Hints:
Layout: E1 4-9, H1 13-28, E2 32-33, E3 42-47, H2 52-68, E4 74-79, H3 80-84, H4 86-92, E5 98-100, H5 112-118, E6 126-131, E7 134-139, E8 161-165, E9 167-168, H6 179-183, E10 187-188, H7 191-201, E11 205-209, H8 230-237
Parallel strand pairs: 1-2, 1-3, 3-4, 4-5, 8-11
Antiparallel strand pairs: 6-7, 9-10
Amino acid sequence: MASRFYVETLGCPKNEVDSEKLVGTLLAQGLTATDDESQADVVVVNTCAFIEEARKESIDTIMALSERRKKGARLVVTGCMAERYGDELRANLPEADQIAGFGVAIATGVAPAAAAASGSTATASTTAVTLGKKPSLVVASETVPSFDLLNLPRPKSREPWAYVKIAEGCDRNCGFCAIPSFRGPQRSRDIDSILREVDELQAKEIVLVAQDLASYGKDRPGELGAGSIVPLVRAVSA
Length: 238
């Protein structure tokens, strides 16, 4: 029987999009989704770190899921808190089997035979390494892949509406917000990739989201119209 996974999402709509893309990736690796965390072989918590209450909720959720997971199940912490506080979480959260910051593929522990059958290069063996400034666990003897959630495919929407993330990061330096420090600078997606995602979702209503919607395209003015979101909105609504 295929290994099962469960994803718990905290925080904003952008995190919801990230989780759906993680789901698409895990399904492509041959795993099966479950709504019951106690039956999952891999439990993923997509955390939020925007304010203190969100950070507390993330820790409380991690601890609760650690208690409810079945024996032998892997607990993976990802999302903003994993990226911003990776070192601290790894040092103080032994309940987690992996702290996966942005750009780090989740080590599911899928057996080599099952991974090969699903087209994945993951193996069951893992080892601790440091990627940049953030520690994590990755598959042993494998080069860490380019794991860009922004452009990964996702499953068809189960609702009549869907969020679509059109950019990642932010170039502003607001004193009350730490997002640019761990999400990075503004990085806009090209219109064609966004339209493909919209078509694949098959939703009747599309909600465009980003850290800074008004800045969409300004990092790529020569490619994305005049550095404006207007051409994208027209294309999506056409």
